[in-house]
Amino acid sequence: MAGGVTAGLLRDLLRAANALLLQRRYRAALAVIKGFRNGAVYGAKIRAPHALVMTFLFKSGSLREKLKSIAQATYAHSRNLAYFVFTYKGLLAAQSGLQGKKIPFHSFLAACIGGWLVFGENNPINSQIVMYLLSRILFGLSRLAVQKGYIPQPRQDPFPLVAALVWGTVLWLFEYHRDTLQPSLQSSMTYLYEDSEVWHDLSDFLIYNKRTDSN
């Protein structure tokens, strides 16, 4: 009997929740909440595999320490992205409500404020996210400049030249101004371009990257 009452109550609550979600007057507020949820989930999906690979490839320490580092990085990325989406969508809704309509500047201003508040601290997680976005922005602005006619449409695909300049610049920085590069990029490049020049026998030539006492 109690089980039937509980099941009926749950059905009523679910029905009421679904009805609330369909109310147009609550749509802006609900979108902010859904944005927070999506930011948290997406941040975890993006950071967890990246942290897993980078930690086990380049970080030393016990298994417990590595797992703790992965969990902390995943949590930080997930939290920050959730906070940013929540802030951005909340400010968008507020501006649209005040002016009665949505204009392009609303998006820019809301994102600037969210970026300052959430990603303004200079730490490894925020640095990676901002650099990731910066590269996409440069490509996007280049395409927009062509679409708007500010620069002429290239006669040939400019990507080979971009690739050459990017790789030329980053290796020059690595070789002669390494401290200007992000630590994770330094670790990757050290593994690729410096560790490949050191070996003692077949074990650390093909099997291991570096020979240790246990090897």
Your description of this structure?
With 215 residues, the protein is mainly alpha-helical. It has 2 domains: 1-120, no CATH class; 160-198, no CATH class. The protein contains 8 helices and no strands. The chain has helices at residues 2-21, 27-58, 63-99, 104-119, 124-147, 159-176, 183-194, 203-207. Helix 2 runs antiparallel to helix 3 and helix 3 runs antiparallel to helix 4 (104-119). The chain is flat.
Mean pLDDT: 88
Distance between the termini: 67 Å
Residues in helix, % = over 70%
Q: Which regions contain 5 or more consecutive residues with pLDDT less than 50? A: none
The helix/strand series, from N terminus to C terminus, equals: HHHHHHHH
Counting structural domains, the number is 2
* Total count of helical runs of at least 4 residues: 8
Radius of gyration: 25 Å
What structural class do helix, strand and pairing data support? mainly alpha
User: What profile does the largest beta sheet have?
Assistant: none
β-strand percent reads under 5%
The beta-strand count equals: 0
Shape: flat
InterPro entries: Pmp4
GO cellular component, one term: peroxisomal membrane
Protein name: PXMP4 protein
Could you give a quick summary of the protein structure above?
The chain is an all-alpha fold. It has helices at 2-21, 27-58, 63-99, 104-119, 124-147, 159-176, 183-194, 203-207.
